[in-house]
Design goal:
This protein is α+β, with helices and mostly antiparallel strands. The protein has one domain: Glutaredoxin, CATH 3.40.30. The protein is built from eight helices and four strands, in the order βαβααααααββα. It has a four-stranded mixed sheet with strand order 2-1-3-4.
Length: about 120
C-alpha cells in the first residue's frame, strides 16, 4: 500500500497526488498537520534517506524560524526534534510503499518507480 505523507494545501503534494490519480495508482493520504508523525517513523525515514534530505530548508516554515533555532539544527537528533515539533518543516510529500522511500515530487522518478512496480 502506498502512503503519501504531506499537507493538503502544499503545491508539491497536490502535484504528486494528481500524478498518482492520473496514473491510477491507489494510495492512502496521511495529513502531517492533523495526524502528525510518530518518532519511530521519522527515525526510520532519517535512517533511509538522511535528515538533510527530509528537512525542508527552502520552505516558509524554515524561513520563519528564529535564527537560533535554525543554527541549533546540526545533526539527526536536533533535526528530528524540530521535524517532530513542526511537521510542516518536513519536505513533502514523503511516499512509503514504493520500492524506496521517495521525498519530494519528481515526475521522472515517479514514472520510473511506479511503472516498474506495476509490471512486477
Amino acid at each position: 500500500m502506498i502512503i503519501i505523507y504531506g499537507i493538503p494545501n502544499c503545491d508539491t503534494v497536490r502535484k504528486a497526488l494528481a500524478w498518482l490519480n492520473q496514473h491510477g495508482i491507489a494510495y492512502h493520504f496521511h495529513n502531517l498537520k492533523t495526524e502528525g508523525i510518530s518518532t519511530q517513523r521519522l527515525q526510520a525515514w532519517v535512517a533511509q534517506v538522511g535528515w538533510e534530505k527530509l528537512l525542508n530548508r527552502k520552505g516558509t516554515t524554515w524561513r520563519r524560524l528564529p535564527a537560533h533555532l535554525q543554527t541549533a539544527v546540526s545533526d539527526a537528533a536536533s533535526a528530528q526534534a524540530l521535524m517532530q515539533a513542526q511537521t510542516s518543516i518536513i519536505k513533502r510529500p514523503v511516499v512509503e510503499g514504493a520500492s524506496e522511500l521517495i521525498v519530494g515530487f519528481d515526475e521522472l522518478q515517479y514514472r520510473h518507480l511506479f511503472n516498474k512496480e506495476q509490471k512486477a
